[in-house]
Design a protein that fits this description.
Distance between the termini: 79 Å
């Protein structure tokens, strides 16, 4: 194979730094302008110093050094974006392959005009034009498909798939630099550069399509979340309407009970009626004061529904155990458990046997929720 001049390490470092900026600018978080510029300049200096110092190491150290360079890109992105770790890792994978493409394309054109690979002042014009065209184009494309708040909502599964794509692209594009004795290696310098540039171009295209797909999945998840909220609001409206109807019936019954009490001449029986009414009220109050206002609301709604469906619902719960939970999670878990129990009890023909009992307690290091019906 013809001798091929290596890409100058400073060119590679500059490509990696510019690629990071492409994904960093739309999601740079709350970093102010001056600290952002200073940190970015320091990042460029560290990247150049690292790649320059490791440029003369033997071939077995090449892959570990490239992995370390990618790690520096990750730290650079994470420090300035303030994004979640999966989002940062995903952008790092995208930026790494993009940097490989820019560096390979620029060096291929450079070697076409100056086959000896020597650096010349006029060669800087090629560097500026190629890097400017690649990164401005990708920056425009990426900025159109990143959310305004800079949160991609990437999952680790999506990070893993993007990493596999990037690893395959890097391995195939650089295979000829390691050995020429494979069916996929080039034997001449022009072949090697063509293979590397074309494979990196395909990798960038695939990863960009992957970014678009992740964006579509994020929009779908957000839409499903909104639909779930609207559905829950509609269910709450239905429950509120049923609760109001039940309260109106109880109010109507209470008026009759008061009329009966006033007409009752026996003081003992009148006192017994009053004691029973007071006991029912106290039982209801105790039943829905658990120490967690969200849980109290859920239990009140379900108990009123159970009363209207002739279901005896009792509860012994230490709501303070659930103060750490998110409101939506708490409503989902408790609400679904009670809804399943209510759905079964409504099928029981004998209304005297419609019973639901719920307990919430701490056992050792666990919180135990038990619903019996």
């Amino acid at each position: 194979m013809n001798t091929l001049p290596d890409i100058p390490r400073i060119y590679t470092a500059l490509a990696e730094w510019c690629a990071c900026l492409i994904y960093l600018l739309p999601m740079r978080g709350r970093v102010r302008k001056i600290p952002f510029v200073l940190t970015a300049a320091a990042g460029l200096g560290i990247q150049v110093a690292f790649l320059t110092l490791t440029g003369e190491l033997p071939l077995p150290f090449w892959i570990p050094c490239m992995a370390a360079a990618a790690g520096l890109m990750f730290v650079f992105l994470w420090l300035l974006s303030h994004a979640a770790v999966p989002d940062t890792a995903y952008c790092c994978v995208q930026a790494f392959v993009l940097a490989e493409l820019a560096a390979s394309l620029e060096w291929q054109l450079h070697c076409f005009f100056w086959p000896d690979g020597a650096l010349r002042p006029t060669g800087l014009l090629v560097l500026v034009v190629v890097y400017g065209a690649v990164f401005l184009l990708m920056g425009w494309l990426v900025s159109r498909h990143l959310p305004d708040e800079g949160r991609l909502g990437i999952t680790w599964r999506e990070v893993s798939s993007a990493f596999i794509i990037a690893f395959a692209v890097f391995a195939v594009s650089n295979l000829s630099f390691v050995t020429g004795n494979t069916p996929f290696s080039g034997r001449y310098s022009t072949e090697v550069l063509n293979i590397r540039t074309l494979v990196d171009l395909g990798g960038v295209a695939i990863l960009f399509a992957h970014l678009l797909q992740c964006g579509d999945l994020r929009v779908r998840r957000e839409l499903e979340a909104v639909q779930n909220v609207l559905q829950n609001q509609y269910l709450q409206y239905q429950q509120s309407r049923e609760s109001i109807e039940l309260i109106n019936r109880k109010y109507h019954d209470l008026k009759h009970q008061i009329a009966v009490l006033r007409a009752e001449p026996d003081a003992a029986r009148r006192g017994a009626y009053l004691d029973k009414m007071e006991a029912d009220i106290k039982q209801y109050e105790a039943q829905n004061k658990t120490g967690n206002s969200v849980l109290d609301t859920v239990l009140t709604s379900k108990s009123l529904y159970c009363a209207g469906a002739d279901i005896t619902f009792t509860c012994v719960a230490d709501g303070g155990l659930l103060n750490f939970m998110d409101v939506m999670d708490l409503c989902t878990i408790i609400g679904n458990a009670l809804d399943n129990a209510i759905e079964y009890e409504e099928k029981v023909a004998d209304r005297e046997k419609r019973l639901i009992h719920m307990t919430l307690s701490a056992q050792k290091s666990f919180i135990l929720l038990r619903v019996e019906n």
